[in-house]
Amino acid sequence: MKVPEHIKKIVPYPPGKPIEELRRELGIPEPVKLASNENPLGPSPRALEALKSALDQVNRYPDGSGYYLRKKISSKLGVPFEGIVLGNGSNEIIEMILKGFTEDGDNILVPQPSFLIYSIVAQIMAVDARPVPLKDFRIDLDAMAEMVDERTRIVVINNPNNPTGTVISRGELERFLEKVPSDLIVVLDEAYIEFVEDGVCPRSTDYIDMEGPWIVGIRTFSKAYGLAGLRIGYSLSAPQVADILNRVRQPFNVNHLAQIAALAALDDEDFLAKTVGLVLEERRGLYSGVEKLGLSYVPSETNFFLIRLPVKARVVYERLLRKGVIARAMDSYGLDYYLRVSVGLPEENRIFLEKLSEVLSELG
User: Which residues pair with 297 in a beta bridge?
Assistant: First the structure.
């Protein structure tokens, strides 16, 4: 079996440990999972009802154009219908962008650290993903602009950043756009945008009518809308950009149930407000609990944040697992002493702080 060298070198994405695995391995009946930035309230009740009503239709192929969902997104966000493309999670949108706009010898720029999928997809396609280090846990757009060269086709800005939870400002983005070539694709990955309180944080919807640099916003139903298991996201861009993405998009790439649930979730504004309110309130409580343990953290605009530990986070992660709590060690992101924790329900957050305190005491 002959495998290309660039494929052999790929390090698979490390997913968060599923609850079922912890139950099976350690016999823990009710683990607390705070590792994957999921919605602690679950999916929208309206989405669940819509799913039940659509189950008898799964013998039919889905709407390959995603017409009704795209119309709903267009109306909600005030963006052109022709500029919306649906994806099997935002991961597939990232893959489409690289397929549509890169070729051999090109490069993309990605923040370091950031969502690992950007670099993995680039490696699959034999495109050079060039890391640009963060500055004080924030994306350094000045450094990114300086690294753009004649073969740079795409710059990825995840805003808020994962794993740090920080955001850029509108002024920083606009200065960056003035510096870079007009044919550049600038991806604003906004997976957590619904949680942002910072009033100076830019939104892709304000820039997609630009004719270069070309802004592509990426959003998802996995986080604030609680539909991670259905895998559905979408892109927002000028119609010219969406046309290219549709050329490389797989037919029927978003399943029928995902589209139905997303339609209903968009209409459930009360559930979205409840989710955001819970996350913001509980995040403040977690900050306070972490401070009482004598630890520092990175303030976040998302439903997760980073905690600085006195020992390597992998050690704490493993001990928390044995106590029935799943968090995320950040060593695969180059942050050996940081643990990322998702905001959960009040009782889940209480248990996390209790078990973290126990682990730190055990480690002396």
Answer: 307
Instruction: Locate all alpha helices (DSSP H) within the chain, ordered by sequence.
Output: 5-8, 19-26, 45-54, 67-77, 89-101, 117-124, 141-147, 170-179, 239-248, 256-267, 269-292, 313-322, 346-363
**Cβ within 8 Å of residue 337, ≥6 positions away:** 308, 309, 310, 311, 312, 313
CA-to-CA dists, residue 280 to 21, 138, 303, 338, angstroms? 29, 20, 8, 21
pTM given for the model: 0.93
Which stretch of DSSP H or E encloses residue 339?
strand 338-342
Alpha-carbon dihedral angle through residues 71, 77, 83, 88, given to the nearest 10 degrees: -70
Whether domain 45-267 has CATH 3.10.580.10 = no
- Taking each helix axis from N to C end, the angle separating 256-267 and 67-77, rounded to the nearest 10 degrees, works out to 30
What is the reported pLDDT for 229? 95
Mean pLDDT of 170-184: 97
Do the bridges between strand 128-133 and strand 304-308 make them parallel or antiparallel, or are there none, so unpaired? Answer: unpaired
CATH topology of domain 5-43+270-363: Aspartate Aminotransferase, domain 1 (3.90.1150)
Q: Residue length, the chain?
A: 364
pLDDT given at position 364: 78
pLDDT of residue 11: 73
pLDDT band at 4 (very low <50, low <70, confident <90, very high): confident
**Predicted local distance difference test score (pLDDT) of residue 6:** 75
Task: Write out the DSSP string of 291-313.
Answer: HHTT-EEE--SSSEEEEE-SS-H
Of the candidates 10, 110, 66, 117, the residue with the CA atom closest to the CA atom of residue 246: 66
Query: For the chain, what are the domain ranges?
Result: 5-43+270-363, 45-267
Cα–Cα dist 99/103, whole Å: 8
